[in-house]
Description:
Elements: H1 2-44, E1 48-52, E2 58-60, E3 64-72, E4 78-87, E5 91-97, E6 105-116, E7 119-132, E8 137-146, E9 150-156, E10 161-164, E11 174-176, E12 178-184, E13 212-215, E14 224-227, E15 237-246, E16 263-265, E17 269-270, E18 278-286, E19 291-296, H2 304-332
Parallel strand pairs: 1-11, 2-12
Antiparallel strand pairs: 1-3, 3-8, 4-7, 4-9, 4-10, 5-8, 6-7, 9-12, 13-14, 14-17, 15-16, 15-18, 18-19
Amino acid sequence: MTSAINGNVKSICRERIINKFIFLRTFCLLIFVLLFQLFIDISSVKAAIIEPKIDIKEVKREEYVTVPIYLDTQFEEVNAVEVYVNFSDNLVFRDYLDGKSIITHWLEKPKFQYLDVRRPNIVFSGIIAGGVSGKNLNLVELVFEAKETGIAKIEIDKKSKVLLNDGRGTQAKLLALSESFNIKDTNGYELKKRMATKIPEDIYPPDPFKVYLVKNSEIFGGKYYITFETKDKQSGIAYYEIAERPINILFMAKPDFKDLEFKKADSPYVLEDQSLKSYIFVKAVDKAGNERIEYLPPQKILSIDDFVSLSIFVILLVLILKLRIYAWFIKRK
């Protein structure tokens, strides 16, 4: 009977051990499934990040503060952005700096607008040629004036877009962040030295650039137009100006810059001279007033009519010279 009891005890212990093993195995399997699901969830929410970054946490009222807007692609390669920046009503948007921007072609430069009467915002968009991937990629630097005391807030609107460089314009998931700082009051004597817009000291002209001639039957009614773009690493580009000057078919010389009449324009620009017989000058001016001028030479120097006119002119000139020489010999006799 003792042996039977011992056998029952051993059987019970064995069963308990098996049950514990099954429970432990089930528990470990459940933990593995949960961790795997968590990993999948984390991977699926990977998103590009656009955020304002402010080194200082406090500024004086009526001072200017520069706020860089950075992009973190989260290991994705992107080639275009459309960004909306909201800001509190104790700030006033004054300017922007794009000298450090990774944007190679602006579709819309930073501008103030009211899409929502409850909060003003700034919008800008552009293309990054060839695509880019990385952290702390400078999109633009926005310059604000601190108008009223209190907490100032700058946030990236969730309707902003980042497009992947996949040839299909796929919109990447986006994490839009915000930043805030305090605006404190100032004494009267401190306002005597109010800061000007924080444009870095700039003695260098904008970077060299090329002017491209383009014609597309579906754009501008099939007319010729030019495109151009450059950067200025110090203060940023303020504006462009364009001048067209017909070629002098007698001297074929490039016009003097001093004789040109420039007018403000943006890229793309439809040419006034669709015959392509003019020099096209593009002047880039940075925010410190430095200039760089590039030009596109005439693409068609002479038409048939021009050639006939020039030939007649040359023939007449030769005849006049011969007559003068003949007259001179007559007088000598």
